[in-house]
Amino acid sequence: MKNLRNEFPIIGQYTYLNTAATGLLSETVFDYRQDQNLDMLTQASMFRDQKSNLYAEVREALAHFYKAEANKVALVPSFSFGFNSLLEGLPKDAKILLLKGDYPSINLPIEARNFDISYAEIDENLEMNISAAVKEHQPDVFMFSVVQYVSGIKIDLDFIKELKKNNPKLLIVGDGTQFFGSEVFNFENSGFDILGASAYKWLNAGFGNAFFLFKEEVVERVYPKAIGFGSNIGKYKQEENTLIGKFEPGHLDTSNLGSIKAALKLQSDIGVEAIEQQVNKLKILAKAEFEKLKLLEEKVVKRKAHSSIFNIKGNAELFNFLNNNAVICSQRGNGIRVSFHYYNTEEDLEKLLSLLQKFRG
């Protein structure tokens, strides 16, 4: 992995282990946004006319990157915006399976509506729990985070593929906000029917942008009610009442959404495989070291595969100690969450481990 300090200046000042909260903004994306804003400042409506193909370009970049169909890529300002639109398009009496304790942006809007809701437990037997819940409750829809935001537990993607194969009528909807940007992924060959994400974390695209990928059959099962002037304008939305148009009723922000394309290009230039290798190396090393220090929950220790997000045992005193020593992390649940991305190094992990030992005395 090449030296990334020029691309991410903050890593020269801090040991940044907080991508799970906010991904670093790259110089590439920053420059793109600056150029967009300058053009808007000096060109006004001419700028808008010149950028008429931008949204199609962002869809095509996402479709190419994640092996999806460009005409089934919706662009939205945040995951929550798109997710609530999606929920409004489901039958009011839909039976929905959730994970107990999943990310609030998933569970809260579902629980605020009158769906028939059931739950599966998040523990070392996550996939078995889901299979049992599907068999018992026969849900219409299963909605969940690919990676859990507190524990870092990652669902087995092969399991999701098998789950869809065995339950073809089950609509499988994932939140990939803590997933997209960390590894190679093929949406078309996955078990997901719908997969959305905000792009400000592991994709490092800054705030104000998100996207949803859809399979073809979703068109016949989801009927969002939102509509506006932007719903039928632009490439891939020539026909009235397109699915993606229902997620895009108004004007979209060219700077924010165009940042996705700039961020994807940076990942392509670095190499998605190289990014995945670096993340995998760091998460394997970190998990082994944290296990030695008995810092992880038993449900995490017992799982074979894990993400690069870890919740280590620690209180506010340890959190403040790490922050005071330029280690940026988050307090989540009953511990301290640290997360490793491709711009992190083994030296970052070594510094964290050294500080943990020093704190313990």
UniProtKB/TrEMBL annotation:
Claim: 4Fe-4S is one of the keywords in the record: no
Secretion signal span: none
Name used for this protein in its record: Aminotransferase class V-fold PLP-dependent enzyme
UniProt xrefs under Pfam families: Aminotran_5 (PF00266)
Molecular functions per Gene Ontology: transaminase activity
Annotated organism of origin: Mesonia aestuariivivens
Keyword Transferase tagged: yes
Alphabetized UniProt keyword annotations: Aminotransferase, Pyridoxal phosphate, Transferase
